[in-house]
């Protein structure tokens, strides 16, 4: 694998993960549990889709085959998408959305802190911008984890159920393959083992403080590094890509 | 000792174009009228998030997705300023929302029409926000301070939305044949409903007289409607589209267009709850509120516990 190929796949992985997560979060817009929270979650979705846009633009320029960010977003199928499976899962109730978001926000914080040191200036630039955003996202979602854990019996149970169901998708966050190997050698990619240590410590403290229990001995789901997904992604893409696919010659 | 006649003070403020503030004395009818108008406006903003939100997950480019998401978020923000402004009149948010959820309070009927294609997102921004601005510009000088100040910010953002809507329409109107058809179809469906946004003809408008007297409104429904048509027709021509009104004609004498009135019988039906989406919009708001109940309860319970710990310390 050439460095260019690896960089393209790496950037797609990050871009796709942000895009699909943002797409899911944006389903909440107008339907949030109360107005202030509706605005806050939409804000998070906006930041994340903004990051996706920057990453896919960069992926398109790395690939250098006259494809645009929109081509990458709207004209690839599910077997060509690299997003983490956890991002494509249905939102479920608000506890599930928030638990997923906290798990990812925490990952993103430590991931972008490492990526900011990348020798690739575009990636380190995107990382630096994202650190500021993700710090705020994590503060927001962590405060909800605490409220859910400590709030009512109902909210506690809902958050615990979400954590139990989502935990099996967290293994993927730290998987590395040839893409990572090639780019770590070049000082471009992040060693996810470093992120994993920090993430585990932070997440276990957060959930402990919130009186929620991380499930043990969970068999981890896998596949997204090979573009293998849950049944949900194809539906997301069918909806998201409908117009560009229906009118391939149109500019919007 | 000199006695103060509160009513004279109030009338004096109106006469001098001064703002009435929350702690000032105000006639009960003025307060009621404002609560009705401001909360209707707030409800319109958050119900308006639904037809536009309908296309967020299907926006056809990354940029248009971001722009639409930001726009719908702005509408929610407007709802928030307006609920807050209404609360200064001595009514709670819960009460206001209750009135919306039970169908007691109204919201702008325009949001009871469906957004069927991507061009509808352009048409809503361009026409609906355009009409809203025309209604709202005068409210920046409304007599009630918190309302007027909220409107300053809202108007700025709405003009931005209108330009974004027009941009969507421009891309469609100058795009492929199919895109142009999509744009014309959206214009056909949104033209008359937009005209209705200014309210019934002056002769039949029940609330206008007081609103003008109290400086909560400064131009009549018919004046605003005429202004809107005059402003919009050249934009339609620029886009190479056709206004769906065979009677539309420039009238040199009044320096404005003659145009057909919208179907007021349809308007009355929609206001009475029989529009294409009335039930869905209300059901969606009710569902969100209902599904969010445990979230709000958790937040309250947690805050209470924190407070107890704080007080015990």
Structure description:
Chain A has eleven helices and no strands. By secondary structure, chain A is mostly helical. Chain A is globular. A two-stranded antiparallel sheet of chain B has the order 1-2. In chain B, α2 packs antiparallel against α3, α3 runs antiparallel to α6 and α5 (118-137) packs antiparallel against α6 (145-173). Chain B is globular, with a radius of gyration of 21 Å. Chain B starts with 5 loop residues before the first helix and ends with a helix.
Query: What is the count of DSSP helices of chain A, taking H or I runs of 4+ residues?
Result: 11
Strand content of chain A: under 5%
Cα end-to-end separation of chain B: 50 Å
CATH class of chain A: Mainly Alpha
Give the low-pLDDT segments of chain A. none
One letter per element, helices H and strands E, the order of chain A comes to HHHHHHHHHHH
CATH architecture of chain A: Up-down Bundle
Q: Determine the fraction of residues in helical runs of chain A and give it as a percent range.
A: 55-70%
String of helices and strands of chain B? HHHHHHHHHEEHHH
Secondary structure category of chain A: mainly alpha
CATH topology of chain A: Ferritin
Overall pLDDT of chain B? 94
Average predicted confidence as pLDDT of chain A: 98
Q: What does the main sheet of chain A amount to?
A: none
Order of the strands making up the biggest sheet of chain B: 1-2
- Please report which band the strand proportion of chain B falls in: under 5%, 5-15%, 15-25%, 25-35%, 35-45% or over 45%: under 5%
Radius of gyration of chain A: 18 Å
Quaternary arrangement of the chains shown? heterodimer
Structural classification of chain B? mainly alpha
Summarize the SSE layout with pairings:
The complex is a heterodimer of chains A (252) and B (313).
Chain A lengths: L2 H24 L8 H29 L5 H6 L10 H4 L5 H22 L5 H30 L2 H14 L11 H8 L6 H18 L22 H9 L1 H5 L6
Helix pairs in contact in A: 1-2, 1-8, 2-6, 5-6, 5-7, 5-9, 6-7
Chain B lengths: L5 H10 L12 H26 L8 H26 L5 H9 L16 H20 L7 H29 L3 H20 L11 H6 L7 H19 L9 E3 L4 E3 L5 H11 L3 H14 L1 H20 L1
Helix pairs in contact in B: 2-3, 3-6, 5-6, 5-7, 5-9, 6-7
């Amino acid at each position: 694998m050439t460095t260019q190929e690896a960089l393209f796949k790496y950037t797609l992985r990050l871009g796709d993960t942000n895009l699909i997560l943002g797409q899911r979060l944006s389903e909440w817009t107008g339907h949030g549990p109360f107005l202030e929270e509706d605005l806050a979650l939409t804000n998070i979705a906006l930041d994340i889709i903004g990051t996706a846009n920057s990453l896919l633009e960069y992926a398109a320029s790395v690939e250098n085959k006259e494809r645009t960010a929109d081509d990458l977003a709207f004209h690839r199928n599910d077997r060509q998408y690299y997003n983490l499976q956890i991002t494509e899962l249905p939102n479920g109730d608000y506890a599930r959305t928030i638990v997923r978001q906290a798990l990812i926000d925490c990952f993103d914080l430590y991931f972008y802190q490492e990526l900011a040191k990348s020798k690739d200036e575009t990636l380190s630039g995107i990382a630096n911008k994202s650190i500021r955003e993700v710090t705020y996202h994590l503060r927001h979602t962590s405060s909800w984890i605490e409220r859910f854990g400590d709030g009512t019996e109902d909210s506690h149970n809902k958050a615990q159920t979400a954590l139990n169901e989502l935990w099996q998708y967290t293994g993927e966050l730290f998987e590395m393959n040839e893409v990572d190997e090639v780019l770590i050698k070049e000082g471009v990619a992040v060693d996810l083992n470093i992120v994993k240590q920090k993430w585990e410590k932070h997440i276990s403290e957060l959930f402990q403080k919130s009186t929620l229990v991380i499930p043990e001995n969970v068999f981890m789901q896998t596949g997204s590094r090979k573009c293998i997904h849950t049944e949900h992604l194809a539906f997301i893409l069918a909806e998201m890509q409908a117009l560009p696919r229906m009118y391939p010659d149109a500019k919007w | 000792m000199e006695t103060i006649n509160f009513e004279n003070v109030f009338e004096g403020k109106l006469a001098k174009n001064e703002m009435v503030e929350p702690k000032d004395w105000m006639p009960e009818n003025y307060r009621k009228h404002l609560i009705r108008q401001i909360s209707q406006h707030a409800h319109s903003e958050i119900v308006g998030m639904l037809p536009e939100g309908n296309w967020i997950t299907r926006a056809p480019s990354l940029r248009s997705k971001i722009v639409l998401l930001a726009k719908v978020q702005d509408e929610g923000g407007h709802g928030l300023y307006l609920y807050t402004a209404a609360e200064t009149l001595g009514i709670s948010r819960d009460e206001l929302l209750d009135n919306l959820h039970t169908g007691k309070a109204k919201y702008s009927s325009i949001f009871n029409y469906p957004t069927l294609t991507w061009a509808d997102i352009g048409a809503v921004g361009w026409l609906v926000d355009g009409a809203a601005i025309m209604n709202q510009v005068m409210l920046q000088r409304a007599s009630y301070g918190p309302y007027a100040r909220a409107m300053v910010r809202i108007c700025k953002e709405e003009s931005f939305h209108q330009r974004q809507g027009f941009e969507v329409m421009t891309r469609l109107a100058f795009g492929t044949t199919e895109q142009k058809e999509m744009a014309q179809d959206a214009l056909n469906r949104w033209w008359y409903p937009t005209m209705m946004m200014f309210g019934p003809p002056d002769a039949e408008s029940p609330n206008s007289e007081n609103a003008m007297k109290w400086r909560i409104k400064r131009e009549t429904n018919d004046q605003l409607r005429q202004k809107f048509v005059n402003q919009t027709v050249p934009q339609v021509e620029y886009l190479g589209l056709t206004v769906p009104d065979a009677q539309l004609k420039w009238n040199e004498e009044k320096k404005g267009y003659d145009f057909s009135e919208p179907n007021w019988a349809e308007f009355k039906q929609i206001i009475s709850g029989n529009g294409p989406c009335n039930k869905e919009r209300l059901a969606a708001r009710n569902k969100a509120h209902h599904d969010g109940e445990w979230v709000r309860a958790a937040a309250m319970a947690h805050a209470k516990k924190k407070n107890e710990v704080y007080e015990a310390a």
